[in-house]
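Data card: per-record layout.
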Amino acid sequence: MAALKTEIIIETRALCYSYAGAEEVPPAVAGIDLKVSRGEYLALLGVNGSGKTTLLKLLNALLIPSQGEVLVKGISTVEAERVQLVRQACGMIFQNPDNQIVATTVEEDIAFGLENMALPAAEIRRRVDQVAGRLGLTHLLRQPPHLLSGGEKQRTAIAGILAMQPACILMDEPTAMLDPAGRRDVLETVKELNKTEALAVVHVTHNPAEAAEANRIVVLEQGRIVADGKPGEILTDLKLLHGLKLQGTVAAELAHLLRQRGLNLPTAILQNRELVESLCISEPVS
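The structure for this 286-residue chain is written out next.
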């Protein structure tokens, strides 16, 4: 039986971007070739200034390439008359949901993008109710957004994107302003959508614990890709990460310190449970 062809949602080719007036500094994005497939969960990892947010904005046509190109479901982001199709296919979730929520109630905010798509009222109602139920927002539909918790606001922003039935969600550090409960709430919501809806996710973060939830990590430095692989490969390569002023997961960092103290532990420990299980059977190095 022939293998099924993977659907490419996003593709960048020799992508470069320089900010206006910044001719004397290196480009923010410098020659990136990248493909994101349907159902993939990709984390973009890097320090501040590495080009993560700029790349995300290029994928959503908020920025237009200085050189190279971005294709979203085959549509070039430079085609001004088709930008709305790009943004319907790749919805963007920002760090601060207050910058994204525009309506006076939750249901109006979820419906906002659908109204811009000129959908019939009955279809808008159906989609709002569907995504509200999916994301646990039904009881909040009539609530003003300013009365919501941070996690509820971010789920409202996700619902507004999801209602437009995108192929991909782009997230720019969506948990940075949330408490631990809100952070867990949002990440679990996104992971479920990724698995059950085959929704592609591109998640910008500098948090190794969040990056570990992805099935692929791309590491950026000075606008270039310097590593691309599975979380177990990237987040346990502490020589690479420390050289880029990044950290591995808590378990990976602690395992590294314990190996330096003489414990015989595997080099590929990523999660806390793996560390605990290894400690139970480890022996000191003779």
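Known properties of this structure: Residues 112 and 168 are 19 Å apart (CA to CA). Residues 8-248 form a domain with the Rossmann fold fold (CATH 3.40.50.300).

See the next section for split statistics.
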